[in-house]
């Protein structure tokens, strides 16, 4: 950049800063001057947003194309900053070199607790650099590394570094390329987290792993880890390859886990069978802390809806996002429609069955029941009648015990 042009830009930015922070705010002024000088020394273009928000707790520089050179200038300015606690640097093409500057800055910065390095093309080299710094972490509580092309090898470095961490609460590794080996490392880490430290701020609470191609093989170590882990509260496995078999493996851990509060499994090849298994497991586990399950892309069956209604009687706060076909909704309405139909005839369901039970056995065959409902012209379509019959014949013995 031409030196005269740079000096002009520098002057304009200084004037802008004077209007924003005022000359009485010496810490901000000092930091701004340091940043502008660092930009001049490195030959990078200053980011005006840095100057506008320098005195705030959150510094959001997402999508500014800072680059590795710009990252060096930022790092110089932030080394001794005591104000910023949340640093957002998503989508800035930092690469491994930019990550190195940020990690070096964290060696002296004692205020930043949350760091977002998502979508910065860190790859394996960047992961090594981040891992090396995090292995001696004393301040960072949340780190986001989404969309950085991290594979199993990169995941191993990150996990190995965090396995002895006493502070990290949130780890975002979504939109990466973590496979079987990486999942095994993550599973091992989850199982080991409980042994790290008993302090309040010493264990991982959120693990975000969406868009990583996780399937049944990867689900096994995570399921086993959930058996032992008593700290993780949020697990995001959305947009992976979790099918019914993988869900069953996760259920092995959910059957005894008493810490997990939120599990996200939407956009997976999961069917109503897997959804039902998950719900059964959660409701049977009396120690389960799950209060939110997100499977909104799964179309569930009537049994799922009924089980959820029953579960909410005991746990009103249980929130489950799911999808349902209109036919399922109609089937669920069948019992109410039939009861209303009988009420208009001054009958109860018991009266209806007793009229069919000529021998007084308290039992009626499903064939007899279907025939009687049709002859009575009850306003039920074929599917509703079939569902209602199955509901009354819970044991599938073709006989309805109405006692």
Written account of the structure:
By secondary structure, the protein is of the alpha/beta class. Among the domains are: 122-324, Leucine-rich repeat, LRR (right-handed beta-alpha superhelix), CATH 3.80.10; 347-401, EF-hand (Recoverin, domain 1, Orthogonal Bundle), CATH 1.10.238.10. It is built from 17 helices and 12 strands. The strands form 2 sheets. A 10-stranded parallel beta sheet has the order 1-2-3-4-5-6-7-8-9-10. Strands 11-12 form a two-stranded antiparallel sheet. Helix 8 links the parallel strand 5 (170-172) and strand 6. The radius of gyration is 30 Å and the shape is elongated. Mean pLDDT is 85; it is low at 20-27 and 191-202.
Based on helices, strands and strand pairing, what is the structural class? alpha/beta
- CATH class of the domain at 122-324, please? Alpha Beta
CATH topology of the domain at 122-324: Leucine-rich repeat, LRR (right-handed beta-alpha superhelix)
* Known CATH architecture of the domain at 122-324: Alpha-Beta Horseshoe
Helical residue percent band:
40-55%
Runs in which pLDDT lies below 50 for 5 or more consecutive residues are 20-27, 191-202
Task: Give the topology string: H per helix, E per strand.
Answer: HHHEHEHEHEHEHEHEHEHEHEHHHEHHE
Indicate the mean pLDDT.
85
The 3D shape can be described as: elongated
Approximate strand percentage: 5-15%
Pfam family, one: LRR_6
Protein name: Leucine-rich repeat-containing protein 74A
Signal peptide: 1-23
InterPro entries: EF-hand-dom_pair, Leu-rich_rpt, LRR-containing, LRR_dom_sf
